[in-house]
Amino acid sequence: MDLTFGTWNVQTMLQPRKMMEIADVLKLGIDLVALQEIRWQSQGEINKKNFTVIYSGPENRRGQNGTGFIISRKIKERILECEPVNDRLCRIRIRGKFRNLTIISAHAPTEDKGEEEKAEFYSKLERICSRVPKYELLIIMGDFNAKVGREERRHKVSGKYSLHEHINENGLFLAQFAIRNNL
């Protein structure tokens, strides 16, 4: 089964009709979109006729962060498991024809956040990845707020055609995570 995925930092879904605006992307033939900065409180699932939104946000109403997915009806029927982890990570498993897929929607802390918060994010992401069975396909999508530069030592991670000349601190966290996890 051919599937088309995307990722989108929507910046907010607190505005009226924003969910329907985002769902319109599914009409373009996209089956699943990983969402960041939904800004909805708590965790849940909203089922509509042609799509489903699965989300994970903060427990208290802060109007910040929040991740999740908007998925087509075709994918909804194939979902094996949903795990709204926290306001920065959400995971789903999809039944595939030959092997299952684990997809993670991620929203890393911005460059101005502390090193401890970034390390905690990547530690949690790593724990989620470690639970994925080795025979499954793992896809991690999202907004990592990172710049990975063209430095030669980064070619294993980003190749030599990065958009950025130099790596930033978030890029270091992302590159180290990718190397540790063979991504």
Q: What is the topological layout?
A:
Elements: E1 5-9, H1 18-23, E2 32-36, E3 43-47, E4 51-56, E5 67-72, H2 73-76, E6 79-84, E7 89-94, E8 101-107, H3 115-130, E9 137-143, H4 155-158, H5 169-180
Parallel strand pairs: 1-2, 8-9
Antiparallel strand pairs: 2-5, 3-4, 4-5, 6-7, 7-8
Keyword list:
9 strands; 183 residues; single chain; 5 helices; Deoxyribonuclease I, Chain A; 4-stranded mixed β-sheet; alpha+beta
Describe this structure as you would to a colleague:
- This protein has 183 residues and is α+β, with helices and mostly antiparallel strands.
- It has one domain (5-145): Endonuclease/exonuclease/phosphatase (Deoxyribonuclease I, Chain A, 4-Layer Sandwich), CATH 3.60.10.
- The chain has helices spanning 18-23, 73-76, 115-130, 155-158, 169-180; strands at residues 5-9, 32-36, 43-47, 51-56, 67-72, 79-84, 89-94, 101-107, 137-143.
- A 5-stranded mixed sheet has the order 1-2-5-4-3.
> Which CATH C-level class is it?
Alpha Beta
Q: What class would the helix/strand composition place it in?
A: alpha+beta
* Percent in strands: 25-35%
Domain module tally: 1
- The H-and-E topology, N to C, reads as EHEEEEHEEEHEHH
